[in-house]
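Hi R.,

Here's the chain you asked about this morning:
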Amino acid sequence: MRREKPGPGQESVWDYPRPPRAEVVRRRAVVTYAGTVVADTDDLVRVLETSHPPTYYLPRTAFGEHLRPADRETFCEWKGAARYVDVLVEGALPLTEVGWWYPSPDPRYPALLDRVAVYAGRFDSVTLDGAKVTPQPGEFYGGWITSDVVGPFKGAPGTWGW
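And here is the predicted structure, written out as tokens:
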């Protein structure tokens, strides 16, 4: 594996900590599906973990009436038990299990309370500060790749043991 060298204004995901760090950031995220903006906020928490692009958590309230609880649950060794959500837009098929949240996050991550992260690749568009987000490779992780982070990124085939 060859690590990319960050340029001016960039971060390497290999400099991110383990266990992960959660930090409040003021960047604007806009999430669109079926011609509808389902979330638009500049109130974000990003989670930084070694080898992963940042995962951004938006306030649940930013989604208005577009969220519906899903049946799926998973467990993160750092953040605790996660519950999944579907996103609904009138006249469109529901996006199932497209995001997750921690109803009672581990005490080390209080900033995640009442926040939802989403899989960017499942939406028509996800932007961060007006720039289109590329989803983290793979089916499990939900990081957002932007021009200000460099990898390589965990999630592609052959990276499970990183």
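One quick note: The chain is about 0% helix and 45% strand.

Cheers,
M.
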